[in-house]
């Protein structure tokens, strides 16, 4: 599990860094109108990917790892339901392209949305391969594919420079499509060459009902749609309700750094579902609980300090990366960083619950969040600006994490080890040190980078010195 976690963390960092590099190039090389078209297409596709990505991936990972059903039958039926979703969204984009152009007041979008329609099946197959590998505990393969894809997307840059100089938007779409196709090709080859030991020798004959596949896929999709909504709707609310308009830019800058915490935490959620599902399928309840406890310890020990460092140094970080006036969003970033960590805990806890029981709790939490969060965000933005909005986000995600933890405590048992408490206490000290440092250093990226590296290295040394974490842990599976 530890190796898989490390691989997924590296994959997420690559995805994060590649995305920034690509958008830095697109923003500097395209006209604002062209970049706006790319943004509109990505926004629509991101919404559709919510249905295609997490639902099938998590459902396949859970059922394959639990070994309750014939794996070949399970994979075929999951692919079949994924194909239904793919067909629906392909038709929406391809045949509904003129509607998008009319609604968004740009007829040129019609052609681009028809091209973008072909990204939908490519993405749907790609994430299915990730889910299959997760379920088979091939986390290294999943992470490899997750690292290849964002790097391959950078092919859009030479395509724009050398081939689609007069039509950079099409260059972006072709680059994304080639990235998906090449990554899917690699994934298919790896799956076919490595499949026999775990798929062909599976002796379970019971087949999974198609309605169960559909139910689980849609349930996971709905949960992650709400997660994405909570993480992104605040930016739209700022744009719509807060003046002057510059505050939307300030808040966007804060969000860009705040989401790093969730990006890193999502690696833990990806690993924990198939690992715990496998232990439960083997009736090894103590082993399942041990994996949950270890996963939470590692998250608190290694991800929480990154969250707190960003929170404590928010003012110099925003000033150095953007401009000094972005420091107006420093209080917001301090809270958004924590909010994203809490959201990571929500996802982690609910993936654990999904492994143990049905998804009714997660479904209920999603519905309640949908009812409460959006109105609360709007009221906070109108009455207190971006700081109040970020505070509301932090309170909502903390509450969701606390409720999810309570559910785990009552249904599964105590998942917080004494070492986790010690790691949390050490994090508080680490945060206070960073608060003091932030008051003393200039707003300079190089200085900040050195501070982060040195302070984090010192923190890890204390983890080892206090025997909270042992180096041999990282050599184990």
UniProtKB/TrEMBL annotation:
Keyword annotations of the record: Cell membrane, Membrane, Transmembrane, Transmembrane helix
Keyword field contains 4Fe-4S: no
GO molecular function terms attached to this record: antiporter activity; xenobiotic transmembrane transporter activity
GO cellular component: plasma membrane
InterPro entries listed in its UniProt record: Poly_Biosynth_Transport (IPR050833)
Lineage: superkingdom: Bacteria
Subcellular location(s) per record: Cell membrane
Ranges annotated as spanning the membrane: 5-26, 32-53, 74-99, 111-132, 144-164, 170-192, 220-240, 260-276, 296-322, 328-349, 361-380, 386-409, 421-441, 447-469
Membrane association type: Multi-pass membrane protein
Aminoacyl-tRNA synthetase keyword on record: no
Main location: membrane
One Pfam family named in its UniProt record: Polysacc_synt_3
Matches recorded under PANTHER family: O-ANTIGEN TRANSPORTER-RELATED, PST FAMILY PREDICTED COLANIC ACID TRANSPORTER
Name under which the protein is recorded: Membrane protein involved in the export of O-antigen and teichoic acid
Organism name: Clostridium cadaveris
């Amino acid at each position: 599990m530890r190796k898989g976690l490390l691989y997924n963390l590296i994959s997420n960092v690559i995805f994060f860094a590649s995305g920034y590099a690509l958008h830095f190039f697109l923003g500097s090389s395209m006209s604002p109108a062209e970049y706006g078209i790319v943004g509109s297409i990505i926004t629509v596709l991101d919404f559709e990917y919510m249905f295609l990505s997490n639902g099938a991936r998590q459902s396949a990972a859970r059922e394959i790892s639990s070994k309750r059903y014939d794996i070949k039958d399970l994979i075929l039926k999951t692919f079949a339901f994924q194909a239904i979703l793919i067909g629906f969204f392909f038709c929406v984009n391809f045949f509904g392209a003129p509607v998008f152009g009319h609604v968004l007041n740009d007829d040129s979008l019609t052609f681009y949305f028809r091209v973008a329609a072909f990204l939908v099946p490519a993405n749907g197959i790609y994430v299915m391969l990730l889910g299959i590998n997760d379920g088979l505990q091939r986390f290294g393969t999943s992470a490899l594919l997750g690292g290849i894809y964002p790097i391959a997307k950078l092919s859009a840059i030479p395509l724009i420079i050398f081939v689609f100089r007069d039509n950079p938007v099409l260059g972006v779409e072709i680059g994304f499509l080639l990235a998906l196709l090449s990554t899917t090709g690699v994934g298919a080859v790896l799956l076919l060459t490595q499949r026999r030991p775990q798929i062909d020798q599976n002796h379970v004959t019971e087949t999974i009902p198609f309605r169960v596949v559909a139910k689980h896929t849609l349930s996971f999709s709905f949960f992650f749609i709400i997660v994405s909504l909570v993480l992104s709707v605040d930016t739209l609310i700022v744009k719509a309700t807060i003046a002057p308009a510059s505050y939307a830019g300030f808040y966007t800058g804060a969000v860009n750094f705040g989401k790093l915490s969730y990006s890193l935490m999502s690696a833990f959620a990806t690993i924990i579902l198939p690992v715990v599902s496998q232990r439960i399928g083997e009736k090894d309840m103590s082993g399942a609980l041990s994996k949950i406890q270890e996963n939470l310890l590692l998250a608190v020990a290694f991800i929480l300090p990154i969250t707190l460092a960003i929170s404590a140094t928010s003012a110099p970080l925003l000033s150095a990366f953007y401009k000094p006036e972005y420091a107006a969003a420093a209080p917001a970033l301090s809270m958004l960083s924590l909010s994203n960590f809490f959201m990571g805990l929500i996802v982690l806890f609910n993936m654990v619950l999904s492994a143990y029981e049905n998804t009714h709790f997660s479904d209920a939490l999603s519905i309640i969040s949908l009812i409460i969060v959006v109105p609360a965000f709007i009221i906070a933005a109108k009455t207190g600006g971006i700081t109040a909005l970020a505070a509301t986000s932090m309170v909502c995600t903390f509450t969701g994490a606390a409720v999810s933890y309570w559910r785990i405590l009552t249904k599964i048992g105590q998942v917080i080890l004494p070492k986790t408490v010690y790691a949390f206490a050490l994090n508080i000290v680490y945060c206070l040190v960073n608060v003091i440092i932030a008051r003393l250093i200039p707003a300079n990226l190089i200085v900040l980078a050195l501070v982060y590296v040195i302070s984090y290295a010192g923190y890890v040394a204390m983890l080892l010195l206090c025997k909270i974490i042992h180096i041999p842990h990282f050599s184990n599976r």
